[in-house]
Amino acid sequence: MTTVKAPVTERQRAGGVTGAIRSRLQQLLAFASLIVIYAFFSIVSPFFFSYGNFIAILFSTVVIGTLAIGTTFVIITGGIDLSIGTGMALCAVMSGVFIVNSGLPLGIGVPLAILFGGLMGLVNGINVALLKIPPFIATLAMMLVAEGLALVLSNSTPIYFSDSPGYIEISAGNLIPNVPNAVLILAAIAIIAGVLLTKTVLGRYTYSIGSNEEATALSGIDVRKWKVGIYAFAGLFTGLAGVMISARLGSAQPATGMGYELQAIAAVVIGGTSLSGGKGSIIGTLIGALIISVLNNGLQIMSIPQEWQNVILGCVILVAVYTDRIRKREA
Length: 331
Prior knowledge:
transmembrane helix, single chain, membrane, mainly alpha, ABC_transp_permease
């Protein structure tokens, strides 16, 4: 059985060393922006620059970062997933259904909740790749379905994990003193995702599909199958995010999730992933997620009203998308 390699497209050839240098510069620019924002809040607020607040920022990055890592794969293919926010809430509810309502042990309930996220991703992939529904519409529909199911399955009430302290320890426990387990999990999945994206056939095909889907198909690669697989794989991160947020809160909140998709997508774009596909990295996505968390944390410490926090975040998203358009025009 022979393995067909992903084609080297004209776009990829044209990039070459220049494209790699440009990508590194974009990551450095994002990292420099993170340092500047962190320094700014450290100056304006004496409470910001502390170890405790630093850990709090990392802790708050876990959910957005997990969602962003998964959707990085989807966006690199040239797709989009608007269902990750409400999908996360549904997976959190399913975790409650499995562990609290059904009494399953953690070793079974947690993987089932994560796999449920993969199932949602699989459905998205089938709708996009096989039924040829535009990703925006397909995932928008899934967003509404997930939002409704989360409310139905939970009877519109939170599911508490009071009798499952081990579940809460998944996020808030401390294998390393003063470092929440959630932060360690984010670091681990970032490393795994980075290796998969840069060192495996999954990553090569992800980049190839995003760079030139038609050329990839003509080379003999089953693009539809791989797109379904990529969406399903990304869905696993949605499921994991559902576990992490419900473990952090100690409850599955069915109404939680709206707005997380925008922050996750913004993190991906801020980190240098192109909305047109074919370009992106996990390290850049993590930097983007940290920028959003630092902004949220700093604005809260400065007692900026939530309404203005939303305005500022919206402006950041606009700048990120406009920057992506400039990058695309210069490429």
